TrEMBL record:
Protein name (database record): histidine kinase
GO MF, any single term: histidine phosphotransfer kinase activity
Annotated signal sequence range: none
Source organism (scientific name): Paenibacillus antri
Principal subcellular localisation of the protein: membrane
EC number per UniProt: 2.7.13.3
Amino acid sequence: MVSTKKTIVILALFLIAITALRLTVLHSQKPIEHPRVTGGVLDLRGWTLPHKQTIPLTGEWEFYPSRLVEPGSTDRFEARSIQVPGKWEPAFRDQAPSSFRFGTYRLRILLDDDEDVRPSLKLRFNRVNNASAVYVNGRLAAQEGSPSEEREEHRAGNLPFSIALDGDEPTIELLVHASSHAGPGGITQAVRFGTVDAINSRTLLSTSLQIGLCVVFLIHGIYAAMLFFFGVANRGLLYFALVMLLAILIVLVADDRLLFVWFPLPYEFTTKIWVLSYTGVVAFLPPLLNRMFPGCGKPGLLRSFAAYCVVYALFVLLTPASYVMSALFVLTSILIISTILSGLVLKNAIRKSKDVMYVLIGIAAIGANIVWTIIESRTTLEMMHYPFDLAIAVLAFAAFWFRRFFQAKREAVLLADKLQQANREKDRFLVNTSHELRNPLHGIMNITQSVLDDPVRPVPEEHKRRLEIQVAVARRMSLMLDDLIDVTRLRESTVRLQVGSVRIRPVVDGILEMLRFMLDGKPIALLIDVPEDFPAVQADENRLVQILFNLLHNAIKFTDEGSISVYVERTDATAHIHILDTGIGMDENTRQRIFLPYEQGDSERAYAVGGFGLGLSIAKQLVELHGGDLSVASVPGEGSRFTVALPLAEEMDRAESPEASRNLIAGESADFAADRPEVVHLPASSADSEHPKVLVVDDDSINLAILADILRTAPYRVATAMNAADAFAKLETATYDLIITDVMMPQMSGYEFTRRIRERFSMTELPILLLTARSRSEDVLAGFQAGANDYVTKPVDFWELRSRVRALIELKLSIEGRLRMEAAWLQAQIRPHFLYNTINSIAALGTMDIKKMQRLLEEFSNYLRTSFDFHNTDRLVSIDRELELVKSYLFIERERFGDRLDAQWELEADLTFLLPPLAIQTLVENAVNHGILKRASGGTIRIRTARSGDRIVVSVSDNGVGMSEEDIARALEAPADVSEGIGLRNTDRRLKQLYGSGIRIESVPGQGTTVSFRLPR
């Protein structure tokens, strides 16, 4: 707000300054003392014309009203004196009023008789309204329009013109015919006289000043229009640009009327253009000020004024120029109303805005220009075109706009700082909230999942689906929380990449395994077209997984049916990974915004699938961190194709790069591992059988070497495999206590590899430890669903890996030891009736056959000694020791049951091997007690060992009562609290732990049973 007193003082000083400037310019243009026209004669004899200045032919000219006097006939008519320049109406006082007037001006210029003294001369007529013809010494020298004594023959035309004089005669007679059909007529501006150079210089200077002022107006009009169309959508800028355009028209149609000199137009058009340009400037000024100072104007008054101006503009366009000139008082009224409305706006603006002073200065400059124009039109004062008032006015308005612009810029900067601060606070809040929500969210997921998996109190089917939806929603929310944390880290530039050589196919296989549980039953085919030998890319494996996971997850969300394909292309040193889906697609507008944070498009489907719209933004930022690019092409209704461009890895042996090891082992352990010598792996069949055996599976040789080296210090016996097929081959020939496998492997992912292992081994029989680049919930869930026991995130911490490996191996060995103890305990639990009957048999033989009694006593003693031997808890025993126990048992049973039991031995010669203790004994006891002795006639038991390729087959057959399929299943799968079948189950589990396969039962009810198992040679 500016005080009224201060405003008045500033405006007064400004008006004094511009008035002083104008007076200074006016004084510099003041013509030299020269003779004046008197009685129609200008006597220049004895007076020398200046070469650089012109003189105005002002004074008393002869005038012949209502006559167009021909040259040479002036003496026949009476002349009157008339002041030139000036209005000619007083000369027609004695005639009837009329809008059409005509007459003749006459002037004689007397020069020196000496031709050598007379220079080349020239005349300049600025305005003769509104048709004229000039005769010099009886000859027609120039004509504008067609002056006539008849209205019908009159043709208007009033452009400035110049006449060159020969100077051959000492007397120059000028006759000026003039006629006017509207408005003031006659010579209304002074005729200039002087040398050719002086007239030309004055004309050129005037023209230059007008063009310069137009250039100033044009520049300001252009920047205002540009700001409006490309920047600030303030209609005031548009009004200002229009005012500048109309001001250019005013300059070009006033004074020298340059526009019509360059582009000759009929008088009708020139008049209307002149009136409309003035009307436009006056009409746009109040709304311009109202836009510059919003709320300071009266909207109703402004609308009424605009309507008034439009009506007048239509009147000017549709009526003849003569009527327009007769109704110029309307233009005057528009000027007055515009001044009043502008004053009201400025009066209110003074109270509200400090910037109003610039506009007041501009208005004051315009007002000063108008006042001086009126003074010039009412007096004989004359000066060349004066552009400085209007130029200052434009500069004042420009200063207003620039001040507003910079003020808005400062406010924008301050607001941006506040917004950035608020954004940081928001990010901090979101991160804190995400961390705080994790615990209760995972609590909800865990409780819900435990209810779903409760075998004691199963969930009814009508509620099960609801709980599954709840778990799915919680998982989705967990992904959203992870995205919030990631986007904040990216914005704060705290993401650090561990770039290395990464193969694409294993990464894609692993991601699709993770995403299968998200399909929610959709009929979508997940297709992979990535060759195994496709070159590796230079990337952070963890972040590459995140990038492709986000893209594939997005494809699944927006695809209801069809397929999602992943394929690759190579262009020079760049790999292009394409994710193509047959989903809903997106339009061009959505495609332009899809990578912005929190952007999901306008489709209702985007809101239906949920999420924050961060996944694609995170993916793009991560790709750009790798020096790559992420782009999308899409057709609405047909699907989308996202393309990830990443640089290919350099062709080098990764085993030679210490960075490869540092990407696997973190912290101090990376330094430890990098300094170790090359590892020589111990074979799985090493004689050092006391050390647990670990199988490490990874497609990276350097990773295998480092992991094996770490594990050997434990120590463990380590075998390595480069892929799943190699690992399966090793499992066929050896037994292991733990498998460590990478998730991302070629041909078969770690998830699928784990799933295949679980088809043969339970989690306790052969633990599996996954090495994964990420520890997000979807990765962990995929691993546990596949059957992994535990996971370690890369880069691996040395001590964490050692601890987890030790825990899993100890668990496995503990379970295995319990099974051996169970077998030994079962063998030690000799049934009482067996002891009683055996002792009775020994006592009976004592009275009948001493030798038999001694033999039976020896076998019984051997049986008891072997049954209670601590070697029964060993991992393996020799086949000879096992057969010794079996033979003692069968000898005792044959003595007890006589011909009801027969035994046949089919043992391959020179066949020695190790097997779990009590493995054959358990099968033999089962065959005797539950097969042969169940028949009254008894039967035969056959024990067989033989080679079969790279395996050894051990079988126990009987021709007893046999077993049904249900009996077989119950014997191997019965719960642990059922005593029947414990021996078979125990043997089966121990064989699976050691060799990957258990016992095989083939039986026909009523015909007999064969139980066999296979051992590696």
